[in-house]
Specification:
The chain contains 6 helices and 10 strands, in the order αβααβββββαααββββ. The protein is an alpha+beta fold and about 290 residues long.
Amino acid sequence: MPIDAAKALAAEPRTGEIGWAHKDVLLYHLGIGAGVPATDPGELRYTLESRLHVLPSFATVAGSGAPGVISGLSLPGVEVELSRVLHGGQRLTLHRPIPVQGTATTTNRLAAVYDKGKAAVLVLRTEAADADGPLWTNDAQIFVRGEGGFGGERGPSTRLEPPTGEPERTVERPTREDQALLYRLSGDWNPLHADPEFAKAAGFERPILHGLCTYGITLKAVVDTLLDGDPTRVRSYDTRFAGVVHPGETLRIRMWREGPGTGAAGSGGTVRVAVSAVERDDAPVLADTLVQHT
């Protein structure tokens, strides 16, 4: 059996050292569309090293570039083809602001394996800490098509009731035709996002944008629009990847404020977000999306 859940869950956590500098942060920000207009003071905090703030979603590429999606396929008990793998969701918890440059120790382990019938879901947890303590925790949900039905737990549902009422803010963010080629320079080399032949073998008509690129574009829109441009206010960010984005399409990002948050956000608030592709009649892209903040 390609996935041995018991063996995978029993595997020892893997630890490693990662490092990043301001150049890595700048490249990531450019990869998610920062810098337009180039001289806008709000954009310069993402693109000019003397004013640099780190968008929290940088944690998904810091030191590695492929949290869970590719590294999860090398775990003991997991032997699957990359073309069957989809990134189903991502949850990021920030323990404190990410420094512009630094080093950290990461611990990777398989937190859960769920049987969804037609697919298996692997939840890979990555925890990062430096000399001052915990920095962030990433949970990546990896869907492996055709590998369900092994009799395991189905797992919790991540579906939420849709937000009610009109969104407080709606913004549109165009993506570049070469957006995936630029974003992958931060380290996520999955050929699904660049190689037309590989994309067709995986069931797509052409390469698609990284889900984590859309994830970063969306968080930047929330920070810039509702959080006063202050990335340090973000406490957690959770989403489900509901559909694909083709590079060159425009993202429509709808935002709703909700009352005081819980958990990582403490006494702060919550922003509900829905993202769709404008050119495809608002086809869903990100769903069940929550940004908790101070």
